[in-house]
Design goal:
Length: 83
């Protein structure tokens, strides 16, 4: 048999969950609009200033490679260092 108080608690919990989900969707939409407006303003300001918009590179290993280990060791030995 169904418990009426349990059903009432479940409906209340579901209503609370749905209300919180709706608030989250509204907040996300508002923040997205603000972000897009800020990005558009930044792009317009950069275009007006005549500076191209740039994409920042991620920090990491540089692509420049130094001499190979064998070349480096040979240089060290030729310079009189012990190896």
């Amino acid at each position: 048999m169904a418990d009426p108080s349990r059903d009432k608690r479940e409906r209340a919990a579901k209503a609370t969950y749905e209300a919180e989900a709706q608030l989250l969707r509204e907040k996300t939409a508002r923040l997205r609009e603000l972000r897009l407006a800020r990005e558009a303003a930044d792009a317009a300001g950069a275009a007006a200033a005549g500076t191209p918009t740039t994409v920042k590179k991620k920090a990491g290993k540089s692509r420049h490679k130094g001499p190979s280990l064998s070349d480096w060791l040979a240089t060290q030995q030729n310079e009189g260092r012990r190896g």
